[in-house]
Backbone:
């Protein structure tokens, strides 16, 4: 099997990693939005935060790593780094990666009893819009 025959598999693995990352990030955001805002959490809520943080470390974060590794591999192989659509897409992927890092840190602090939830409602809208734009840019390649 040549490398170019392997490309559909590489693309499929990249899309699968994106799906796992997206599901994890959206799920974390919804759970964080459901927790009480601007106040300390109960022990039960801290346990929930600890559980979600463990899921993040075991599923969402590794999926994000795969997204980056496979995405960069595809971009280098296909010579896409000079393409405007990819450069715009990378801005949104960086935003999603940063939001993931912020949420992961918040989940860790909440699990340890030292954090407070703030401003999660708007974050879900930003995350969903970014994923939609990433998908459109990747499939349509409009510019």
Residues:
């Amino acid at each position: 099997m040549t490398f170019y025959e392997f490309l559909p598999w590489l693309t499929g693995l990249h899309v699968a990693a994106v799906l796992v990352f997206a599901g994890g990030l959206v799920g974390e955001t919804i759970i964080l939005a459901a927790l009480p805002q601007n106040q300390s959490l109960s022990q039960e809520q801290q346990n929930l935060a600890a559980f979600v943080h463990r899921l993040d470390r075991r599923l969402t974060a590794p999926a994000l790593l795969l997204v980056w590794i496979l995405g960069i591999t595809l971009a280098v192989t296909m010579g896409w780094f000079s393409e405007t659509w990819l450069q715009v897409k990378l801005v949104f992927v960086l935003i999603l990666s940063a939001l993931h890092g912020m949420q992961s840190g918040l989940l860790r602090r909440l699990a340890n009893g030292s954090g407070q939830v703030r401003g999660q409602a708007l974050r879900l809208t930003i995350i969903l819009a970014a994923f939609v734009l990433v998908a459109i840019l990747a499939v349509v390649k409009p510019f």
